[in-house]
Amino acid sequence: MDLSKRQLAAMIDHTLLKPTAGTEDIRRLCIEAVRDGFAAVCVNPVHVATAARFLTGSPVAVCTVTGFPLGANTPETKAQEARQAASAGAAEVDMVLNIGALKDGDDALVEADIRGVVAAIKAVKQDGLVKVILETGYLTEEEKVRACRLAGQAGAHFVKTSTGFGPAGATAADVALLRRSIPAAMGVKAAGGIRTIDQALAMIAAGATRLGTSSGVAIVDGISSTPPAP
C-alpha cells in the first residue's frame, strides 16, 4: 500500500491512556501529534482540557474515552461524561458499548446507550464524532455484526475494535468484518496491539479508516524507511 508519512499520520489517533500519565506526558503527546500531523490525540477524560490547551490553533483533534474500559457504566453516566468532555474541548469520544447487554440480547439498551452519548456530544459540539468500542475479543461473530448494526442505528460515526485493555486487540479479520457490517458512511477504527508499520498497513488494507495506537511515532517513522512497492 503506497501511503506517504503524512497520509498515514492523518489516520492515526496518537494515544496515551496509561493511568500514570501526567501533564508533561500529555504535553509531549501533543507536541508529537502536531509535529507528525496525527488526526487526534486520545487521552483520558481528566486530561481533555490540558490537551485542548496544548493543541490550541492546531488541526489536531482531542479525542477521549467514555465508559472506559469496561463499558459497564450506566447510560446516564456515559452521556454525562461525554457532555463534560465535549465542553472541555473534546471533538471525538470513543465509548465502550454495554458488552453485557449485547450478550444478553438487550439490543434496545445497547442502542439507547450509544444514542445517549451521540446526543450528548451533539448538544455541545454539532460536528463531534462518536466511535463505539466493541471489544471484539469478548464477542462472537454474530455479536460483532449486531453491535455494528446497533451503532449505525444509534448515529455513531465509527465502530472500533478494542480498548487495548481487553482479552485481544485488533485483527485484520475483525476489521474486515466490521467494514462489511456498517454503512459506507461510517468508519472503522482499529486499535489494540498495533505497534508496527506492517500491522498498521494490514489494518488499513482490511478496511480501517482510523488507527488507535500509542506507537504512532514509530509507525510513521517506519513508513519513511519502507522501500516502495515494486
UniProtKB/TrEMBL annotation:
Subcellular location: Cytoplasm
Keyword Lyase among UniProt keywords: yes
Keyword tags: Cytoplasm, Lyase, Schiff base
Short name of one Pfam family: DeoC
Catalytic reactions of this protein: 2-deoxy-D-ribose 5-phosphate = D-glyceraldehyde 3-phosphate + acetaldehyde
GO MF annotation list: deoxyribose-phosphate aldolase activity
Record-annotated active site: D94 (proton donor/acceptor), K160 (schiff-base intermediate with acetaldehyde), K189 (proton donor/acceptor)
EC numbers: 4.1.2.4
Enzyme class, spelled out: lyase
InterPro entries to which the protein is assigned, alphabetical: Aldolase_TIM, DeoC, DeoC/FbaB/LacD_aldolase, DeoC_typeI
Pathway where it operates: Carbohydrate degradation; 2-deoxy-D-ribose 1-phosphate degradation; D-glyceraldehyde 3-phosphate and acetaldehyde from 2-deoxy-alpha-D-ribose 1-phosphate: step 2/2
Record's GO cellular component terms: cytoplasm
One GO-annotated biological process of the protein: 2-deoxyribose 1-phosphate catabolic process
HAMAP family with a match to the protein in the record: DeoC_type1
Family: Belongs to the DeoC/FbaB aldolase family. DeoC type 1 subfamily.
Classification via NCBIfam families: deoC
Functional note: Catalyzes a reversible aldol reaction between acetaldehyde and D-glyceraldehyde 3-phosphate to generate 2-deoxy-D-ribose 5-phosphate.
UniProt name for this protein: Deoxyribose-phosphate aldolase
Organism (species): Desulfotomaculum copahuensis
Gene (name only): deoC
